[in-house]
Write a structure and sequence with these properties.
about 475 residues; alpha+beta; FAD/NAD(P)-binding domain; Flavocytochrome C3, Chain A, domain 1; 2 domains
Length: about 475
């Protein structure tokens, strides 16, 4: 009898050791952040500043997510940079543009938070060392408010650089090649995650609060076609990790998903390689012509409108045309030239020949455009943003077509970024979300330059609120 009594604890201990070996010894953090893009890194910084212990996990071998591919800039109205440059703008105008772009289907409370806190978000990033000293004009805006590095360099790499450096300075750990495969719950409360590392080992990470900053599903054709079959065959500008990993997690725990069919096609994507051609090229003066050589639209219309206009043209293709003056104003264009996506020529006629469009027609079209914009007359297609003559050689052209760019749909959140239940709309305890994994902020279409503001602002809110637990 005594031997049996001694044997039972021994066997139990062996079983527990076996479980630890198979599942890994559990860890605990105050806040667990899933995803290392702008939203996740912003959440981690804010949570740590509130005194929480924080861990960031990222399934890809590098950090940054889609933020690393962001080129155009980050929106903010009434910023100190705008004031320094003499730009008149207002948060009211920014909100109006945001709601109009989303066809008035945005959650007005969340959209209001975005525009109200954008200038503070830019201020915080600049305080961390980010160069956001250039302000440009993007499609659908009533004023220049898109902040980017000096000379118009790509903005995403700059934001990730300063966020990464800040996490390193604060000793906040980031665990790469580690993906979430399940949520740990105690009753209705989320208490951590089951994760898998690159070796296939699965283990648990417990937390008091969990932030899903996991990105959208625009990198998964199977997923975006599931929600919008009309997108079958489209290229995507998304990085390969944007596969909507939050969707099965949400479905399993009854979280509300909304606007999942609202997927934005960016109008100017190089179709042979799926490379995003920044909207800033049009914002700084570039125009669009069809495969014959005719201009056909306002190049600064909302993205969904412009994408539809291009898809109406032969082959669903167009050429983005700019000159040396535009090139010099936007250093991001150098990347396209380096990748050999750009055709160049010394005259409009020569450029047309190289692009395979009608040389006399294109030359006449460009001269008409230049004449109108030299005179200051109204643009025949209603272009209301920056419009300048294109008359400084060399001339440049890039073939473009719409490609899947951004998912407006995602997890339903409240103003504190708490994820809401589908059954009753109440918050799921312990679960927060930010960035492209959330829905409702942008409605049916996103205003260019709002995604980075969204990620940084709601990432910060998520980190702060999660730390309060």
């Amino acid at each position: 009898m005594i031997r049996k009594q001694l044997l039972y604890p021994f066997v139990a201990g062996i079983l527990l050791l076996g479980i630890f070996y198979l599942l890994g010894r559990p860890e605990h953090y105050d806040v667990l952040v899933i995803g290392a893009g702008a939203a996740g890194l912003s959440a981690a910084l804010e949570a740590e500043a509130e005194g929480a212990s924080v861990l960031v996990i990222e399934k890809m071998p590098t950090i940054g997510g889609n933020t690393m591919r962001a080129t155009g800039g980050m929106n903010a109205a009434e910023s100190a940079v705008q004031e320094k440059l003499g730009i008149e703008d207002s948060t009211r105008a920014h909100l109006k543009d945001t709601l109009n772009a989303g066809h008035r289907k945005s959650n007005p409370v969340l959209a209001g938070i975005l525009v109200d806190q954008a200038k503070e978000a830019v201020h915080r990033l600049r305080a961390l060392g980010a160069d956001l000293e250039d302000v440009g004009y993007l499609a659908g805006h009533s004023a220049p408010r898109t902040h980017r590095p000096t000379g118009g360099a790509p903005v995403g790499t700059e934001i990730i650089r300063v966020l990464k450096d800040s996490l390193k300075a604060r000793d906040i750990p980031i665990r790469l090649e580690t993906r979430i495969i399940g949520l740990i719950r105690k009753g209705e409360t989320v208490r951590g995650a089951l994760v898998r590392d690159k070796t296939g080992r699965e283990y648990r990470i417990f937390s008091t609060a969990l932030v899903l900053a996991i990105g959208g599903y625009g990198g998964s054709p199977r997923t975006f076609v599931r929600y919008d079959p009309a997108l079958a065959g489209f290229n995507t500008t998304n990085h390969p990790g944007a596969t909507g990993d939050y969707i099965p997690l949400a479905e399993k725990i009854g979280a509300r998903l909304l606007d999942m069919e609202q997927i934005q096609a960016h109008p100017t994507v190089e179709p042979d390689h799926g490379i995003l051609i920044t909207e800033a090229l049009r914002g700084n003066g570039g125009i669009l012509v069809d495969l014959i050589g005719r201009r056909f639209t306002d190049e600064l219309a909302f993205r969904d409108v412009l994408s539809a206009k291009i898809l109406e043209r032969r082959g669903g293709l167009a050429f983005l045309i700019f000159d040396e003056n535009v090139r010099r104003s936007l250093s991001a264009s150098e990347d396209y030239i380096h990748r050999r996506l750009v055709v160049s020529a010394n005259t409009p006629r020569e450029l047309a020949q190289k692009l395979g469009i009608d040389p006399p027609l294109f030359s006449a079209e460009l001269e008409t455009y230049n004449t109108v914009h030299r005179s200051g007359k109204a643009d025949p297609f209603g272009r209301s943003g920056l419009s300048i003559p294109l008359e400084t050689p060399p001339y440049y052209g890039i073939k473009v077509s719409p490609g899947v760019h951004y998912c407006m749909g995602g997890l339903a959140i409240d103003e504190k970024t708490r994820v809401l239940r589908d059954s009753d709309g109440k918050p799921i305890p312990g679960l927060y979300a930010a960035g492209e994994a959330t829905g409702g902020i942008h409605g049916k279409n996103r205003l260019g330059g709002n995604s980075l503001a969204d990620a940084v602002i709601f990432g910060r809110i998520a980190g702060k609120e999660a730390a309060k637990r």
